[in-house]
Amino acid sequence: MNLSAQQKIRLGTCAWSFEEWRGSFYPADLPPSRWLEFYSRYFPAVEIDSTFYKTPAEATIRRWIESTPASFRFACKLPREITHDRLLRECTAELTAFLRALEPFASKLHVVLIQLPPSFAPKPGRPLLRAFLAQLPRDFRFAIEFRHAGWHRPQHINLLQKHRVCWVWADTSPLNERNLAPFEFLPTTTDFVYLRLLGDYSTKYDPEGQHLHRYGKLLWKREAALESWALKIERHLGETRSIWGFVNNHFEGFSPETCQRLAHRLGFELPLPSAEETASANPGQLDLFAGKDAPD
After folding, report:
1. Is residue 294 a part of any domain in this protein?
2. Is residue 285 scored above 60 in pLDDT?
3. Segment (H or E) for 170
4. pTM of whole model > 0.85?
5. How many domains does the chain have?
């Protein structure tokens, strides 16, 4: 892959604050307040999960901005109050307040993710979605993830194209299908692609709600799926402005390494911290990166 094609692709993880990554990605004694700073030396982007639960304070956003290089980019989820509680109904005030809170992000915020619940079906959801999309401001970019198969129809592709909203490609394949290529309904509705490798959520909790795994290393490999996604990304590189790919721990057990494995299939290297770096942290270690605008 040539450099110009590689520069179109930004890979990152779904969130960065995982205690299980201590000693496997983060240096063992690096305080959590510096995790994003460390993360941004290896990845060019991250998807913020916490905005799904709570609108961030301005001071928090400022800290995220100041902790990351100038070229680093964020995506963030729309609050669940809008997508899951109100189901896009009568939420103009909540949407306006949330987007206003994001204004300090300025150029570092690439896209706002609208993650809809599996229960949100075209009937009765279609008129709600149509009204919601019509009120979205043009000074933000949006991507929408449908989790109900009823949305996989041409008229819904046309609706998203009309409003310049990206159709999210999401892989939630069951673990017992990890050696199969992912399902093929993958429309492009804007000038960028937004891919989420989410994995099988049944691997996350047992029936009592307890965590089943610690996500600090690869637990299972989805070789066929990664190869399939790499081919899809390569196929769309020439016709799209950028491709954003975010990986969840549940996809293979350790999202930083999944990103690295996908990058390798795409023909470029995505170095991760060495064992020496993760074993301990020199308090001045991150100062070595001062002034760098992008990971090597």
Report:
1. no
2. no
3. strand 169-171
4. yes
5. 1
